[in-house]
Write a structure and sequence with these properties.
The complex is a heterodimer of chains A (195) and B (168).
Chain A lengths: L5 H6 L8 H19 L6 H4 L2 H6 L21 H9 L21 H17 L3 E3 L8 E2 L4 E2 L5 E4 L5 E3 H10 L10 H11 L1
Antiparallel strand pairs in A: 1-4, 2-3, 4-5
Helix pairs in contact in A: 2-6
Chain B lengths: L2 H17 L5 E5 L7 E7 L10 E7 L10 E4 L42 H13 L9 H9 L1 H19 L1
Antiparallel strand pairs in B: 1-2, 2-3, 3-4
Helix pairs in contact in B: 3-4
Classes of the chains: A mainly alpha (195), B alpha+beta (168).
The structure holds zinc ion (2 copies).
One zinc ion binds next to loops of chain A.
Chain lengths: 195, 168
């Protein structure tokens, strides 16, 4: 995963639709998404996408990953999580840099793939951390294994915690928390709107 | 979910069910070397038309379990609105997960990775007691259940008797 630097943001043309040469690149990206998707969504899928890919794909909103906190191990309550979401710069980049909803295809199958690529982007923005021995969340209910100290975990907005791989694969299929059924994107969007 | 993870999870459930059997059904593998294929015996729930019956069913788990649901098929003949004439069980918790098709309001009714053999069977047993005629898999049984209950009862009673004979 390419970490975007501040100037990369300035350089990247966000309005791909306005620049013809970028449309080709966007098409290539869609092709690649399609190929990858044929092998099925998996957690390793996430790493195959570069930041540029993410920018080129139609996204309704953009958040700069480098603005996210690196260490979420201190997050252990819902209010902390809300606080964390509030620190995310939602209005960044400025509106003129936000990518337009670029319709790459009318084909429903490809639409689905584009949706999946967007999903990948959303999943990447859910915080991760390493298991700190917290007694409240001992076990990943997807694989039913107890967490071991230091193991990589991902937190959902409802504060339910899972192994990164386990929850990534699930969220590619259904965007709800397996424990409490809270829709993940609705929760994310609500947090943004209340900001 | 890798194959080893799904088989590990199923092995764990098998040994748990062997250690602490759950009332209402028994479960095991069809073939000891094949962890993805289970055979269960459901005891017709008391105070229902199925009381006294012994219904054998197979569960086929995909390698992606628990991200995807198993398929469940009754081997013993059974007459029920939500079980088709081939024995395939059609209940929402065994529907593939997805966002658009069923809508969020129904997320709780669809497949979730937290489901185990035990929770699936508990749902199936409650389905026996309480059919859902909104999306019947056996349209004739659903129609009878609504419009000609005595005939429905008679057909179920015949299945119960047959299941007892097969079980001996
Ligand atoms: Zn897990
Ligand atoms: Zn939750």
């Amino acid at each position: 995963m390419v970490e975007p630097s501040a100037d990369l943001w300035q350089q990247l043309p966000f309005s791909a639709a306005e620049e013809p040469e970028l449309q080709d690149e966007a098409k290539e990206t869609t092709e690649r998404v399609k190929e990858e998707a044929q092998q099925g969504p998996s957690s390793c899928w996430l790493e195959h996408f570069t930041y540029r890919d993410y920018q080129l794909l139609p996204c309704t909103y953009v958040i700069r990953p480098s603005d996210m906190m690196d260490d979420y191990s201190s997050l252990d309550s819902h209010s902390d999580y809300q606080g964390f979401l509030e620190t995310m710069p939602l209005n960044y980049p400025p509106k003129k840099y936000q990518s337009p909803r670029l319709r790459l295809t009318e084909n429903p199958e490809e639409e689905e793939l584009v949706k999946m690529a967007k999903r990948v982007g959303l999943i990447q923005h859910l915080p991760t951390g390493s298991y700190d021995g917290c007694r409240k969340n001992r076990e990943c209910v997807i694989c039913m294994m107890e967490f071991s100290l230091g193991e990589g975990v991902r937190y959902l907005p409802c504060m339910h915690t899972y192994h990164i791989e386990c929850i990534n694969s699930w969220l590619m299929r259904s965007f709800v928390c397996p424990s409490c059924l809270e829709p993940v994107d609705a929760a994310l969007l609500t947090s943004y709107e209340t900001n | 979910m890798s194959e080893s993870q799904s088989s590990l999870l199923l092995r764990k459930q098998l040994s748990e069910l062997n250690k602490n059997p759950v009332e209402g059904f028994s479960a095991g593998l069809i073939d000891d070397n094949e962890i993805y294929k289970w055979e269960v015996l459901i005891i017709g729930p008391p105070d229902t038309l199925y009381e006294g019956g012994f219904f054998k069913a197979h569960l086929h788990f995909p390698k992606e379990y628990p991200l995807r649901p198993p398929r469940m098929k009754f081997i013993t003949e059974i007459w029920h609105p939500n079980i088709d004439k081939n024995g395939d069980v059609c209940i929402s918790i065994l529907h593939e997960p997805g966002d658009d098709k069923w809508g969020y309001e129904k997320a709780s009714e669809r497949w979730l990775p937290v489901h185990t053999v035990e929770t699936i069977l508990i749902s199936v047993i409650s389905m026996l007691a309480d059919p859902n005629d909104e999306s019947p898999a056996n349209v004739d049984a659903a129609k009878e259940w609504r419009e000609n209950y005595p005939e429905f009862k008679r057909k179920v009673a015949r299945c119960v008797r047959k299941s007892q004979e097969e079980c001996v």
